[in-house]
């Protein structure tokens, strides 16, 4: 760590996704690995050894960025889930209202049909009454006219 060169070796490998590298149980992003692979001339130390403090800083920054990204993604998923839940509840409410409206309309139509059926039965009874009355009147007239037919 300080002024002397570090003899510690860092080994890394690529996981199944080919974009995250595992270093002693720490997950690193591809950009950090690329920076670690840069030639030693671009690093702050001229001896070519990896500066542990700088490496720790980079790893901490990358981990913080990765955590922030994961937290952001998790928050987006939660918000999306809440939005989907609200949409589902809203659509269920609309569906329930539509079903209730249809039931009310169906019940109204059924009552209307019953009312019309009663009116039709009433008209039918009235017509039968009129028919009986007119048949009776016809029979009376025929009885009155019989003597005249027999005379003529």
From TrEMBL:
Position of the signal peptide: none
Biological process annotations from GO: inner mitochondrial membrane organization
Membrane topology: Lipid-anchor
InterPro entries in UniProt: MIC19/MIC25, MICOS_subunit_Mic19
Keyword field: Disulfide bond, Lipoprotein, Membrane, Mitochondrion, Mitochondrion inner membrane, Myristate
Main location per the UniProt record: mitochondrion
Coiled-coil regions listed: none
Cellular-component GO terms for this entry: MICOS complex
Subcellular location: Mitochondrion inner membrane
Region called Disordered, residue ranges: 31-53
Residue ranges, compositional bias (Basic and acidic residues): 32-41
One Pfam family linked to the record: MIC19_MIC25
Name the UniProt record assigns to this protein: MIC19 protein
Organism expressing this protein natively: Sapayoa aenigma (broad-billed sapayoa)
């Amino acid at each position: 760590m300080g002024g002397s060169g570090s003899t510690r070796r860092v080994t890394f490998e690529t996981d199944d996704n080919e974009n995250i590298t595992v270093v002693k149980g720490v997950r690193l992003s591809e950009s950090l690995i690329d920076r670690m692979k840069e030639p030693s001339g671009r690093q702050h130390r001229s001896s070519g050894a990896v500066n542990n403090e700088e490496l720790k800083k980079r790893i901490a920054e990358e981990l913080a960025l990765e955590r922030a990204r994961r937290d952001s993604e998790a928050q987006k998923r939660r918000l999306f889930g809440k939005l989907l839940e609200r949409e589902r509840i809203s659509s269920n409410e609309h569906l329930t209202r539509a079903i209730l409206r249809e039931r009310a309309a169906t019940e109204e139509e059924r009552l209307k049909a019953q009312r019309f059926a009663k009116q039709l039965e009433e008209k039918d009874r009235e017509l039968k009454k009129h028919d009986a009355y007119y048949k009776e009147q016809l029979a009376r007239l025929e009885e009155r006219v019989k003597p005249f037919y027999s005379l003529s």
